[in-house]
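User: For documentation purposes, I need each entry recorded in a consistent format: the amino acid sequence on its own, followed directly by the corresponding structure tokens. There are two entries in this batch. Please keep commentary to a minimum and don't merge the entries.

Assistant: Recorded as requested. Entry 1:
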Amino acid sequence: MTESLSFSLDPRLKTKLFGTELPSPLILGSGTLAEHVGQIDPFLKSGAGAVIPRTTRKNMERKVHPSPHLYQTGPIRNETMINAEWTGAAIDYWRPYLEDLAKTKRIIMSISGRDISGCIDVCRELDLYGFPLMELNISCAHSNNIHGMITRNEEHIKKVIGGVKEAGVVTPLAIKLGHSDEIVQLSEIAKKSGADANVWSIVISYSFNGCRPYYQRSGNTNNCMWRSKPS
């Protein structure tokens, strides 16, 4: 894992994040661009101040959506299949790389905040490495019905932040909130609960090309997809 850039950045771009100097204020958000350790280095070399790998958790557990999981959209006879798999990796995958990632001082680990107990365990482990910041992710709107609408659940926000802090974690914590008409209020609650920063995630509506998706299960119970349906 490199700490150097492949070219020179204007020194005026340097910024500090909780005392850690970054070469630029641009941070790659958690997502599919950095699902694996090999995907991180190109962004660091290209001028990203920091990289947030895909959200991790203690255990990967698929509760309802089977695999493969696809979104089908587009006009009849010219439809397109979009991969909607739930990807990412548990902390077991990242564990061999944590020391090297932390040494760069430009990696921010993102931890799922759905399972509070598991989140606390992962945060306590990551806290030993000295990352500049940890992100507690409760922004994923697609699983809210399963997990109690946690993107706008005040009590859940209080419990996950309070639980991590009470566990003795000293690494600064950011709470990642999803699109919500209550996002300002929830950010204030997160701040009062001990969050050191807020990350706002803007989620695009699931209406595509004038169609709304409906859930369809094929004859094979292990194959599911969203299929476009006229509004």
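Entry 2:
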Amino acid sequence: MSIPTTRKPIVSEPMVSEAHLASFDRTMQLMALLETEAQSLREHAYRVTDLATSLAVALRPDDADLAVKVAVGALLHDVGKTTIPTHILNKTSRLEPSEMMVIRCHAAVGATLLQPLIDDKGVLEIVRNHHEHWDGSGYPDKLAGNAISLGARIVSVADAFDAMTSDRPYHRGISSEAALKLLYASSGKAWDPEVVEAISSLYESGRWPRTMV
């Protein structure tokens, strides 16, 4: 299914300033440039953006700046994967340790690629730190707890949920209910407990993004 490149963040219009919209439009231009070589990542990026932005609004309803940073950061969180050889990205068997190291570089590489293009520390933190873990066991910087920006903690949960529920070369997607159980199992370890509670509340209340249904 083709997804248009003119989408706007899931934030109510009165909350969004002209500067926010200009930032989002620049991001969509970047996404359009990436689509030809990273089409397999595009739909994942849009689903993660919808879910992460909904989480940001649920957690901080009066913080439009957070919602827009999350939308932009989520759209571009995997941009570093465009530098990874296709045979590694699409491998169906267990990755070798050297291949896993290449995969794990994508967060830092993505932030480095975007630094000359996006003058927003919050967005760059999301791209670089969306694989950090609440207990400090993530990568690339081994950050823990509130040392990880809230935006990165939100995108981390949204990214993990979509990875669990989507078909990948190396696994079949599981149900939303099963994914939520896995998130709860690692709440306080991999993920911020507040964000895990928020995604559960979104699901149970029916305020689920359309792209996640």
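Summary note for entry 2:
Residues 1-16 have pLDDT under 50 and may be disordered.
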